[in-house]
Amino acid sequence: SGINAEYGESRNLFGYVETTFVKLKPSWMISTFGKVGPSLVLDVGPHVTVTDVEDVGTGEKKRFKTICDDKIKNTDSVLQCALLIEDPLTNPGQFKLRIHYSVTEKTSALHFVPPYQTHDDQYYYLVTNTQPSNARGWIPCQDTPALKFPYLAFIRVKQPFTALMSAIVTEEKEEGEGSEWRTVGFQQELPVPPFLIAITVADIVSLDVREEGDTDRAEVFPSTTDSHGAPKDDVKDNLLDEAAYPPIRVWGERSVMEKVGPSGILEMIPRMMDLCESRFGRYDWGRYDVVLAPPGYMFRGMEFPAMNYISSTILNFRDLTGPNYSFATIIAHEMIHSWFGNLVTPKYAGDVWLAEGITSFQELELVEDYFDDPKVGNYLRKTRYTSLSKSIEGYTGAMAKYKILTPYLYDHHPWYGFTFIHYLKGGLFLEYLANQTSRDDLDSALRVYLDLFKYQSVDTADFVHMLYEHFGFQNNKEIERDIYVWLERPHTDVPLSLFPSVMFEECVQMYKVLTRSRNNLEVEWTWGDIAEAYNHGTGTLAGKARHFRSQMNMVLERMERISSQIQMTKNRVRVKHWKKLINRLDKVFQFSNMTDSDPETFATWASLALKFNHTETMSKMPAFFEQNARLELVFAVLDAPTDQRLRGVFANILRTSYDVDMYPGFIGYLLKSYQEFFIKFFEP
After folding, report:
1. How much is the mean pLDDT over the chain?
2. Are 662 and 106 in contact (CB under 8 A)?
3. HSE on the CB side for 510, CA within 13 Å?
4. What's the pTM?
5. What's 608-623 look like in SS3?
6. Any idea what the Cα angle at residue 409 is, between residues 407 and 414, rounded to 5°?
7. How many alpha carbons fall within 13 Å on the CB side of residue 666?
8. If you write DSSP's letter for every residue of 398-459 in order, what string do you get?
9. Which residue of 239, 455, 546, 561 has the lowest C-beta tally within 10 Å?
10. pLDDT-derived band of residue 235, with 50, 70 and 90 as boundaries?
11. How far apart are CA 644 and CA 613, in angstroms?
């Protein structure tokens, strides 16, 4: 395919797409247009307007029709709209069509983040939201992950904006001396599914973390070397081949790059890349760009080829030099998708665990290797799978089917395949396989999987067949039964005992100290010890300070769960005690002042503090909601307030700031439910 688009200040895109089609079978049906041969059917979104279709080979104009009624426009629709084009051929053969069209800012595939939800607060910031099958929202195409193809693109963009895509820049031309416009050419030589075609246009600057041609590979960690410090045989080719050194560049708004540039936090990216290549083989996508997306971006990250989105809300601007496990895990997660998800792609929405589950498992392995500390790996595993065991209890009734790793989604929007379960239960299934074999053997099997299905779209049956062939599981009825249960049954056993963690136990210790739990008489720390270590990195616990900043979020989550139980008991004495506790926590740790410096911690804090109508936190919520659209943070606090006035504020924010039709599937359903609930009962 080829894409030619123009973007200026109107927040609309204009252009055309050229696509080569191959007709495989002759057709003898009467089409929509009354001639022999069926219509060619493409997917389009409701905010895509097609103006002209022509056969590039003959120059002939083709008749077309867009079917897009009000029912199809519903955000829960799988199909959205259909573009029917007069079939150019009766017999098998190849033809190329040029489709002229425009896209409005209302499309859910492109998110024009408003200036007030950016760091620099000057211009709209365009990001792409095409996962899992929403490319149709800005490109007429056959929008299925089962189809993969290379593409060329030319984006005409106006100063001061920079255009990026999930492809390599091939050219950049000014339109003449003094012109504000320039055209940027892109090429993606490897086949990708439509949802991995992405565009970013914003006023951003870059920092080269590893320049093109740089052969100074980061330190090889012990996990990739033998006892003599030499690369293991199975990774030598990748470590010693200069072609396997992809250039790495980080993009962000000026105010963000001024902070992260000197901090050294970006140095983890090339080291992560080296570890990925040692595990999975050469990085095939040419270069690796990281875009630090603005607070108005909906997600933690997204794995577009050659261009990963990472939400800037993950950065802890209070301390960019300390270990940021959130930043490390999301960098690892999106980078690993360059292999699992991009190189080998799930064919159907019900197989999404093949990308997200495998990546979630490998992400923790990679972070453990990066920090060279098994304590970190087991801590992250235990916190993550503890969350899974808690949340999975809520999947009852009609939701129970989403406990299955391979749900039947034929009559549902593909977004319903992206649940907490498919990430964490998928990762836990890989933990099970590692325990049945070994981690090294499982790594070897996953390399075979990548080699077998490179550049292809696969389903769960392909993966299971590979496992059986590689490990000989077909001769083991017990494992065969277990695999069936993991994939096809809703039951999930979370064996937390497999992940003993000193850091996890330290979280329990911190919780007991901060809440003064009476059932523990052996607490060795004090409030002062924790506060000194957390706030200043000094004192008797200074050596633990590097972990406390991460562990505190887990402590706050634990407190939030306990506080919900306390609220339900309506015990006035305990509620009064917890209100005092909340006030003291904020006075010592200043959580309510972290809206800009550490949004993740603030959201975790707010989900606890709002249950007790904490005044300082309540006063920060309107501004926090206005600036942050990351759904993970929004959902964390929506259920928290018990105060009627604050719920009225939430109702107004949801009504004015969130166009629920911009959010597809399950996410749109949740936002719409919150919106209707708050507006109905709490609107001022």
Report:
1. 80
2. yes
3. 28
4. 0.87
5. HHHHHCCHHHHHHHHH
6. 110
7. 15
8. GGGGGGSSS---TTS-GGGG-SHHHHHHHHHHHHHHHHHS-HHHHHHHHHHHHHHHTT-EE-
9. 561
10. very low
11. 10
User: CA-CA distance, 431 to 434, in Å (whole number)?
Assistant: 5
| DSSP state for residue 225 in the 8-state scheme | B
What is the model's pLDDT at position 615?
87
Q: What is the C-alpha to C-alpha distance for residues 351 and 580, in angstroms, rounded to an integer?
A: 48
Q: Are strands 301-302 and 307-311 parallel, antiparallel or unpaired?
A: antiparallel
pLDDT at 498: 72
Arithmetic mean of pLDDT, 495-518: 77
pLDDT attached to residue 573:
80
CA angle 166/163/8 to nearest 5° reads 135
Chain-centre distance for alpha carbon 200: 16
* Interacting residues of 216 by C-beta distance below 8 A, sequence separation 6+: none
Whether 362 has a pLDDT exceeding 90, the answer reads yes
Q: How far is Cα 460 from Cα 346, in angstroms, rounded to an integer?
A: 8
Task: Give the whole-angstrom CA distance, residue 68 versus residue 46.
Answer: 6
Measured CA to CA in angstroms, residue 609 lies from 317, 554, 581, 636 at distances of: 22, 15, 10, 12
CB 473 within 8 A of CB 483: yes
Per-residue pLDDT tens for 413-423?
676 667 777 88
- Distance between alpha carbon 40 and the CA centroid of its chain, in Å? 33
Q: Among residues 50, 54, 66, which one has the least CA distance to residue 18?
A: 54
Q: Of 637, 574, 638, which Cα lies nearest the Cα of 604?
A: 637
pLDDT for the residue numbered 613: 84
193, 176 contact by CB (below 8 A): no
Q: What is the pLDDT of residues 301-325, one digit of tens each?
A: 999 999 999 999 888 777 666 667 8
CA-based nearest residue to 433, from 464, 389, 457, 406 = 464
For 635, counting Cβ atoms within 10 Å of its Cβ (0-12 exposed, 13-18 middle, 19+ buried), the class is middle
Exposed/middle/buried for 243, CB within 10 Å: 0-12, 13-18, 19+? exposed
Predicted pLDDT of residue 526: 78
Identity at 396, one-letter amino acid code = T
Report the candidate in 329, 372, 379, 385 with the shortest Cα–Cα distance to residue 502: 379
CB 87 within 8 A of CB 37: yes
Say how far apart CA 175 and CA 182 lie, in whole Å.
5
Which range is most confident: 11-15, 313-317, 354-358? Answer: 354-358
The answer on pLDDT for 225 being more than 70 is: no
Q: Quick one: pLDDT band at residue 146, thresholds 50, 70, 90?
A: very high
Q: Calculate Rg over the CA atoms of the chain.
A: 26
How far, in whole angstroms, is CA 152 from its chain's centroid? Answer: 25
Give the pair of three-digit tokens for residue 554: 């887990």
Quote the pLDDT of residue 494.
67
Report, as an integer, the average pLDDT of 100-119. 89
User: 10 Å Cβ neighbour count for 419?
Assistant: 20
Residue 603 φ/ψ region, left for φ over 0, alpha for ψ in the -120 to 50 degree band, beta for the rest:
alpha
User: What are the distances in angstroms from CA 304 to CA 125, 127, 347, 632?
Assistant: 17, 11, 17, 20
Task: Please compute the mean of the pLDDT values over residues 198-224 and round it to a whole number.
Answer: 71
Query: Beta 40-44 vs 168-174: how paired, if at all?
Result: unpaired
DSSP label of 392: G
Q: What is the pLDDT of residues 583-616, one digit of tens each?
A: 999 998 899 999 888 888 898 899 899 888 888 9
Please tell me which of 23-32, 54-63, 69-78 the model is most confident about, judged by mean pLDDT.
54-63
Q: Report the alpha-carbon distance of residue 304 to residue 368 in Å, rounded.
A: 24
- Looking at residue 38, the DSSP 8-state letter turns out to be P
Task: Report the alpha-carbon distance of residue 635 to residue 629 in Å, rounded.
Answer: 10
